[in-house]
Amino acid sequence: AQKITQTQPGMFVQEKEAVTLDCTYDTSDPSYGLFWYKQPSSGEMIFLIYQGSYDQQNATEGRYSLNFQKARKSANLVISASQLGDSAMYFCAMREGQAGTALIFGKGTTLSVSS
Amino acid sequence: KAGVTQTPRYLIKTRGQQVTLSCSPISGHRSVSWYQQTPGQGLQFLFEYFSETQRNKGNFPGRFSGRQFSNSRSEMNVSTLELGDSALYLCASSLGRWTGDSPLHFGNGTRLTVT
Lengths: 115, 115
Description:
The complex is a heterodimer of chains A (115) and B (115). Chain A is mainly β and 115 residues long. Chain A is built from no helices and 12 strands. In chain A, strands 2, 5, 6, 10, 11 and 12 form a 6-stranded mixed β-sheet that branches. In chain A, strand 5 (32-39) and strand 6 form a beta hairpin. The termini of chain A are far apart. The mean pLDDT of chain A is 93. In chain B, strand 5 and strand 6 form a beta hairpin. Chain B has strands at residues 5-7, 10-13, 19-24, 31-38, 42-50, 53-57, 64-68, 74-78, 87-94, 105-106, 110-114. Chain B is built from no helices and 11 strands. Chain A binds chain B through residues 33, 35, 37, 42-47, 49-52, 59, 91, 93, 95, 98-99, 101-108, and chain B through 31, 33, 35, 42-45, 48, 50, 55-56, 58, 88, 90, 92, 97-100, 103-109, 111.
């Protein structure tokens, strides 16, 4: 079974609108971390936001927020006020265990922002 | 502060050859990880080094190897190249036991094409 599932291969949004990118995860470890990365066409992976399994509040970083629903095992990324520069591939990833040293990535979602 | 630097950016090799990719982490980062990205398999963990020791290894054949030097710079080597090794190879570094305060920071990658 996949550990990280991103069900939306592609999403389309207009500038200034908000968009939610879905991510569900599967782990039996009580300690884990969830990350979102952005990959523009240049190839570099850019860290966006992190949520720890014991964090009580949803993480926020500027226009990015993570809708963490632990019981549902979902960690959706919300981008408010989309910009043209947000067009990229977005990956959800998980670190299992407190000492986990490998990220498990989802297949990614391509976000296209139009004017 | 300079980011993660990977060299070369592009490589074209022939089946059966070997290749060495280089990664210079962010100054002060002691953990270096390598990931392979292909359209079919997505992003897959190769290995992780910390203070010159391999801490974790992904499910790749022994043709894939790596090492880390005392200055935290890392190299990965692929011997007896196969067509399926064509991919974007991403290196990432972090301070150590990474969390949201110390996420993985990725380089721009080396795009390897095997013909």
